[in-house]
Amino acid sequence: MLDEVRRELQRRLDELLAEADKLRHALRALAGAMTERRARGGTKAGVLDALAGGEAMTASEVAKLTGLGRASVSTTLAKLAKSGEVSKADRGYQLDGQAPRRDR
């Protein structure tokens, strides 16, 4: 019984820590996008930063996370895929060479 409770608490803690990591990453991406948005290459930097968490994301998700325009993000992702910096995932894009995380 105690082992069962301990396992459940550990599982919940792991979920919360994963969520906290995602939120921290989102805050960093948003802050980076806001400061780099005005700079040349800011869209590319914001997109790459958003994908740095290892999770595959759609253009809409990246746009929402970074505050960039969806069309601009979509164009940037297509260019990055063509250059090999990102790759298509089952759903969206991911940084090239990263296996998508499946912790959802």
Describe this structure in words.
- This protein is mainly α and 104 residues long.
- It has one domain (2-95): Arc Repressor Mutant, subunit A (Orthogonal Bundle), CATH 1.10.10.
- It is 64% helix and 6% strand.
- The chain contains four helices and two strands.
Which strand order do you get reading across the main beta sheet?
Answer: 1-2
CATH-defined fold name: Arc Repressor Mutant, subunit A
First CA to last CA: what distance?
27 Å
Most strands sheet: 2 strands, antiparallel
**Radius of gyration, taken over Cα atoms and rounded to an integer in Å:** 16 Å
The domain tally reads 1
Beta content: 5-15%
Give the helix proportion (percent range): 55-70%
**Overall residue-averaged pLDDT value:** 85
Shape: elongated
Poorly predicted parts: 100-104
Write the layout of secondary structure elements.
Layout lengths: L1 H35 L5 H10 L7 H8 L3 H14 L2 E3 L4 E3 L9
Antiparallel strand pairs: 1-2
Helix pairs in contact: 1-2, 2-3, 3-4
Question: What's this model, at a glance?
Answer:
With 104 residues, the chain is mainly alpha-helical. It has helices at 2-36, 42-51, 59-66, 70-83; strands at 86-88, 93-95. It is elongated, with a radius of gyration of 16 Å.
